[in-house]
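Standup, Tuesday
Yesterday: got the pipeline producing structure tokens again.
Today: sanity-check two examples.
Blockers: none.

Example 1:
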Amino acid sequence: MSPRTTTRSRSLVVLLALLAVVGLLSACSRADDSSSSAAGGQTSPAQEVKLGYFPNITHAPALIGVSQNFFAQELGQTKLTTQTFNAGPDEVNALLGGSLDVAFIGSSPAINAFAKSKGEAIRLIGGSTTGGAQLVTTPDITSPQQLLGKTIATPQAGNTQDVALKKWLKENNLPIGTGPNAVTVQNIDNPRTLDLFKQKQVAGGWLPEPWSSRLVDAGAKVLVDEKSLWPDGKFPTTVIIARTDFVNQHPQTIEALLRGEQKAIDFATSNAAQARTVTNDSIKQVTGSSLSPKVLDRAFNELSFDSDPLAATFPQLSKDSVTAGATPSETDLKGFLNVTALNTVRQAAGKPAVDTAGLEAAQ
């Protein structure tokens, strides 16, 4: 091979090497651009949102929002997937496991979810329902002491009504346990509680609507209305929580859901009779049975609907969870609240911003 040919060959090798380097740098640059685009895309509307709620009157805004397509209308191209639950702890597991994005849920499981994830995985993004929880018992029970030796039902260990009952029992110096000198607290699905009450196997339950009204319809009397235990009778029965990652990545979707909820609340307020029918039909679709007009009217009259989560009540609710034994220690709720989207929706609806009670994360 001639020197000239050798020189040309070496030059070709160098040139090819340089081209390879340029190509690699270009690829890296494109990868960086792609990464930047993906990062920017994290704040775009979600392709799908998975929403959980209960087939209860206390979740009427969720039931109305789904059945009347208020959520779907506001979500636009985002697919809405729904799942129903009987009680909060199961719904919390679904959220923490990633099979749900947003949930209508009781206040106590909301706190427990925040505590369980060490303040990382869950944010409280809105309110829904206040009131609508009562301790209803057989008519012969007219005082706390008469509960000794009796079995009282709650929907699930650690759920909102379970915490409320256990806290109330402790405040009234009533031991929780078995035997004639204690109150047996049994966690039972709501439909089963009604059956057992009719069979005289449980003496009553601390239950959300419509189940407290269903037991009243079956002969129970109200021993404690939870409204009587709170200032102005207001306490959050149902709130909305969401996975923190979902809130941060898809604020537009969160805002759309909250707009849909506001439409549902407005519908329930301005079209009361129709709202009751829609809610009842939705419950029947899930549970297979509808409520009688008497039960339906009583249940709705016990409730009020508002997107304000009543943040100022949550420190007390956190203490109640400890008293009831649902959590080992009081939860530091700093950072629990994210109501940026909620206040945007409320402002557009002509409603005041909610009181954060100092529970928002530091900016």
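Example 2:
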Amino acid sequence: MTDSEWRLAATARCPCLSGLQYGECCGPFHHGSAFAPTAERLMRSRYSAFAVGDADYLLATWHSTTVPSRLELDPEQRWYRLEIEATSRGGMLDTEGTVEFRAFSRADGSASEQHEVSRFVREKRRWVYLDGV
């Protein structure tokens, strides 16, 4: 297990703000004991990975054709809110889908917002992040 997997207790509120505890929501995905069943669940788990600093999970859930060779997260950046604005396809029987979201963070005393429409596809039967605009 990486250090990031120990940063958040299973009983803590999940960073993706689903209303569930981390151990019931994104935690099992981060620990490798489950795989996201939908594109939105993968999106939420990837956001939570940013929030807990789990770069390994982010790389593991990136499409093989677009994954960067390495990923360094800013330890000073604190992700504090995720808003899912829209989803298209990405269900349990789909092979592709999109999730539009806004993610909010703070670093160096400044707040920032990321608005993205992310594309997800199935690769080897698992949802992965392809790209986003």
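Quick observation on example 2: The chain is about 20% helix and 35% strand. The first helix runs from residue 27 to 30.
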